[in-house]
Write a structure and sequence with these properties.
The protein has eight helices and 14 strands. By secondary structure, it is α+β, with helices and mostly antiparallel strands. It folds into two domains: 115 residues, Gcn5-related N-acetyltransferase (GNAT) (Aminopeptidase, 3-Layer(aba) Sandwich), CATH 3.40.630; 142 residues, Gcn5-related N-acetyltransferase (GNAT) (Aminopeptidase), CATH 3.40.630.30. The strands form two sheets. It has a seven-stranded mixed β-sheet with strand order 1-2-3-4-5-7-6. Helix 7 packs across helix 8. It is elongated, with a radius of gyration of 21 Å. The termini are far apart.
């Protein structure tokens, strides 16, 4: 019966029986997503500074058993945005409205705290969940050839407003920190994110799964305005040298991040899609020059890339 199920907003420290039940930290459940399992173990442990991680979970009160859950994370550097996911309902409880109630409870909780945009990753094959998200205002943002999907629920114009710097205020670039993860995933999960076109392998699947990305494998600088992440510049070892990349919504934000990066790394080269005028502008403003062009195949289509060097 519906009145036998209660819904709970859980924050660290989590109830011991919930931790024991939570499926997404179990190796047998997450064997193919080891990086995410390790991340969710950190969530359970509550050891990531700058992030507020919580769950909304459903409990069957007569038995005391947890039967469903979803997680969301909000950061200090992007308090208007939430990363939402790892939705799970026990097999015998699916189709009875428990999942919808969990999501509605979380959406109302986040809205009361000032969250305006909620993003989530899922799989295109998960049509039941996608339909439930659509009915609650999510829209498809991008997909990748492997079937991964980003969906975003936000007010009209929020993305452009949130990541367009005020030209009257300065931008400052500093090292990336865990509290940036939510903003970076949101920034790069949108159709305007140029990185999704590039076969550079810097961020995997042409989208930035910041929570499980190997942050130790490169150098990362974030351009900020009053603490809010606006662009990310990356430098990694590649092809016997150092390859850089930068992405953001505006050329000034990208230039700020890239200039700071170039001050800290050896000579680099940058590959930019020829049609990506905004990123080419940012790269040239940072002092790099066009050296050569090449054509690569991306998602079955030819893409002309421009190689820039210092």
């Amino acid at each position: 019966m519906p009145d036998e199920i209660s819904y709970h907003v859980l924050s660290h420290p989590y109830p011991e029986d919930f931790v024991a039940w939570y499926p997404y930290t179990k190796p047998e459940v997450m064997a193919e997503s080891e990086d995410w399992r390790r991340w969710l173990e950190r969530v359970i442990a509550g050891d990531t500074p700058g992030l507020l991680d919580r769950f909304v979970a459903a409990r069957h009160d007569p038995s005391g058993e947890w039967i469903g859950v979803v997680w969301a994370s909000v950061s200090q550097t992007a308090p208007e945005v939430a990363h939402f996911g790892w939705f799970y309902i026990e097999q015998g409880r699916r189709g009875g409205g428990v999942g919808g109630r969990i999501i509605d409870t979380y959406l109302s909780t986040l809205a009361a705290e000032g969250v305006q945009a909620v993003m989530l990753p899922t799989q295109l094959e998960n049509q039941r969940a996608i339909g439930m998200y659509y009915r609650r205002g999510w829209q498809l943002s991008i997909t990748d050839p492997a079937g991964g999907v980003w969906m975003v629920r936000e007010p009209q114009g929020f993305y452009e407003e949130y990541f367009t710097p005020d030209p009257s205020r300065p931008l400052h670039a500093t090292e990336a920190v865990p509290a940036d993860y939510v903003a970076l995933d949101y920034l790069l999960s949108r159709p305007a994110a140029p990185i999704r076109l590039l076969p550079l392998g810097l961020v995997g699947s042409r989208r930035f799964m910041a929570f499980c990305h190997d942050w130790e494998g490169g150098r990362y600088l974030v351009a900020r305005q009053e603490g809010r992440p606006m662009a990310l510049a990356v430098a990694l070892s590649a092809d016997g040298g150092t390859q850089a990349d930068v992405f953001g919504l505006t050329a000034p934000a990208m230039t700020s991040a890239l200039c700071a990066l170039l001050e800290r790394v050896p000579p680099v080269h940058v590959m930019v899609a020829a049609a990506d005028a905004r990123r080419r502008e940012a790269v040239q403003a940072a002092g790099l020059s066009l050296r050569a062009t090449a054509t690569r195949t991306v998602a079955g289509e030819p893409l002309c890339l421009c190689r820039y060097v210092l």
